[in-house]
Amino acid sequence: xxxxxxxxxxxxxxxxxxxxxxxxxxxxxxxxxxxxxxxxxxxxxxxxxxxxxxxxxxxxxxxxxxxxxxxxxxxxxxxxxxxxxxxxxxxxxxxxxxxxxxxxxxxxxxxxxxxxxxxxxxxxxxxxxxxxxxxxxxxxxxxxxxxxxxxxxxxxxxxxxxxxxxxxxxxxxxxxxxxxxxxxxxxxxxxxxxxxxxxxxxxxxxxxxxxxxxxxxxxxxxxxxxxxxxxxxxxxxxxxxxxxxxxxxxxxxxxxxxxxxxxxxxxxxxxxxxxxxxxxxxxxxxxxxxxxxxxxxxxxxxx
Amino acid sequence: xxxxxxxxxxxxxxxxxxxxxxxxxxxxxxxxxxxxxxxxxxxxxxxxxxxxxxxxxxxxxxxxxxxxxxxxxxxxxxxxxxxxxxxxxxxxxxxxxxxxxxxxxxxxxxxxxxxxxxxxxxxxxxxxxxxxxxxxxxxxxxxxxxxxxxxxxxxxxxxxxxxxxxxxxxxxxxxxxxxxxxxxxxxxxxxxxxxxxxxxxxxxxxxxxxxxxxxxxxxxxxxxxxxxxxxxxxxxxxxxxxxxxxxxxxxxxxxxxxxxxxxxxxxxxxxxxxxxxxxxxxxxxxxxxxxxxxxxxxxxxxxxxxxxxxxxxxxxxxxxxxxxxxxxxxxxxxxxxxxxxxxxxxxxxxxxxxxxxxxxxxxxxxxxxxxxxxxxxxxxxxxxxxxxxxxxxxxxxxxxxxxxxxxxxxxxxxxxxxxxxxxxxxxxxxxxxxxxxxxxxxxxxxxx
Lengths: 303, 448
Prior knowledge:
The complex is a heterodimer.
Chain A: H1 2-23, H2 27-48, H3 66-73, H4 75-109, H5 112-127, H6 130-141, H7 146-153, H8 161-164, H9 166-191, H10 195-203, H11 208-219, H12 221-236, H13 240-245, H14 257-267, H15 271-302
Chain B: H1 2-19, E1 29-36, H2 42-57, E2 62-69, H3 74-83, E3 92-96, H4 97-105, H5 113-117, H6 127-132, E4 142-147, E5 150-155, H7 156-161, H8 173-186, E6 191-194, H9 203-214, E7 222-223, E8 228-231, H10 234-248, H11 255-258, H12 263-271, E9 277-283, H13 301-304, E10 305-308, E11 310-311, E12 320-324, E13 326-330, H14 338-348, H15 351-360, H16 368-371, H17 374-379, H18 383-388, E14 393-395, H19 402-418, H20 423-437, E15 442-444
Parallel strand pairs in B: 1-2, 1-3, 6-9, 8-15, 12-14
Antiparallel strand pairs in B: 3-13, 4-13, 5-9, 5-10, 7-8, 11-12
């Protein structure tokens, strides 16, 4: 510190102090983040390498990578990873993303009242708290639910959808709930596409599909990548919706990683193991993000 | 330098800001935590009365009753999280005997031996009940406040329609199956039999369901002499086979209904009072639902429903079997008002309060003088029957590994009733899971 100030001389030193003073207002935010965000994450990383338990043993011992080894050799964990990937791909990457895009495209050509009605309904689903949405779908898909009532009235045999197709049921509920986000992002992105370019394409003889795939989508590709990243991360960590609908059952057939981590930590009292699974979930999210960021960067380099 | 000081100052503010708001810090408040199960307010009403009495006897002291409204599985989790920190630990807790050993090992509870030494009332508690709150090392951590037994409830009106006797007393498992099949044939719109299974209903599937079967075979879960968990037993597979039979034959409800987490209250509060269920393997406490103060008051219950003992597999041993659990009052290590908490325990445990509680909560007293009290025996027509089962009752091996072993039992029953695995497969997977949970502290059942 002293040697640096000596070398730097007066001007550098005063500018350094100014930078510090300018940064001062950020202080409270940084401290709050460190205490309430950084703290728990560090604690979580620490706990993942211990045999910390909610009950049954009093000491906390460092066990190295045992929790991770246990996860990677456990068939239940493997199944939970597969369900998580299925849930994320079907409900976020395919469902919310494609449906959001279709809605955004259709809304462009819709009349004002149609636009207002559709967006009110779609955004309404998004505004609902997760657990409320979960219960709505529980009553819709359950054995005495509305869907079965409708099916029965037209003579189709009924079934308990939460029991026969649990992971698909929660995935559909998540599409219903999350589509609004993609729709809003894409609506905003589409309104930024200059009309001259679209018109120029039409003059050059491009049809609707050609314009969409060669002009519109490439122009909003960065929004697509950003949106994909956000909804993937949101969907990976969905807990309340699934818990309210199926609690991960029956026979763990809708147990995604967040549910699995919760069960291990709080139902089976293995806090260390549960946090290790949470860390793995964090890693999976990180891998998805890196993948999307990489696409974004490649795009930038080629354009 | 200035900035560093500012940072330190702010950090201190942040830390004190989130450290405030502690409610249990003062010794003028006694926090009591217990479990409130759904709509049932029997314990709330009872404790509110005790609170008034205790506060009158201790001027200046406030008893803060803090129910945790939670299901079977969530209550211990929430309680354990509270007990971990001195800032949130209650002063007195209502602790299930099924969790107590686990929490003793975790160091959450305070041994009470020094308090008991000078407490004359302790000799009135019966010996088996005392064991429920005692650790493996022999220290007392919980004062029992009631126990229960399990048997069979059957509907006499449905039985009459099916041509079955009103004084039905099955001698073995086959008698149960025969009766259930008779009901299925004669009264098609009722569910013939209910035996809990699957993860949805939690411990009820293990204790009211599977263990009522297993303990009626020649095998058990745990070998007390070698302190090892038993795997690969024939009894385990026989019990699963019984479940497989009743669910496959449609003698029980569909697996989808049974896996519903609210199934236990549906059985006690809807199916039985509505006359939709003929035979229910369930607890003595089921009748609590039908009392005037219960969830679904049902004045005619004692003329419609009759209890009978659960038979052993082939009538072996005493010919009948029951399982018992129960709750205790315990003081957390982190409690900051342990002396007053103990005083409240002694008030809750005296004869007059125990008698009132046993009657109101329809349970079996743990004090010998209460059990013999005519007021108790006359209070409810089935009290004498269920208290009589205590003679042949078994306790779960409620050691610290038990909750996780119990979860594996639930998983095994769920696999069988949903058809996800055969009996042999489910039993083999259970054996593997128990081996891993107990770090190999298992013993192969003899003769298998």
